């Protein structure tokens, strides 16, 4: 009994340690999001008005700066995906649980993150908002400025539309794969436990333990695949946009993510829930 209790305590301590590492990974990512957002916003606000003519060197320098910021943000995202995938190998439940998210964020999650199709929806929303802003300013006597998401070309819109359709189909396939693995919990040998005539609710055997570990690996694989899918979809979308539009989009998407996270924390704290 002493050995069993010691084993349980060690297992609990290890799980708690892994949960802490996963939580720290997420907090580091959010701080990096804030820093990236600040740099993107600075690049946008420091951009000269488009009605002012710039020489070729200035234009090239500005475009290169924006390309650098976009690639820097994508590298940060890729490193975050890799790091949390590594952590998941040590403690899979930490990958699924996301206890660091607020009760506002949890219902929005799809495979431990956002749906990639949300990127496209956000582009359409920003396109409409910024186009109307441009038009209103022009009708009030201002100059019609271009270069943001309100200035997407017909070719860009077609590519975004195609990306949306491909993304939704891929999301459905991943959701189906996850559902299939989840349903496997009702198959033998795991389901055999339900037929045992015993009151012990924690009894298992080697076959069950092996099946549970296999089930865990399968689920982790789907989540890791979803992370890579989020990354690749975002890259494809940014390849459609020009550097200024990419910076505009990334600044808006990071602000939305940060705001939802902060709103959720404030709501939970007001209700006495701590993270």
Automatic annotation (TrEMBL):
Residues 19-270 form the DOG1 domain. GO terms for molecular function: sequence-specific DNA binding. Pfam families: DOG1 (PF14144). InterPro entries: Seed_Dev/Stress_Resp_Reg (IPR051886), TGA_domain (IPR025422). PROSITE patterns: DOG1. GO terms for biological process: DNA-templated transcription. This is DOG1 domain-containing protein. It comes from Lithospermum erythrorhizon.
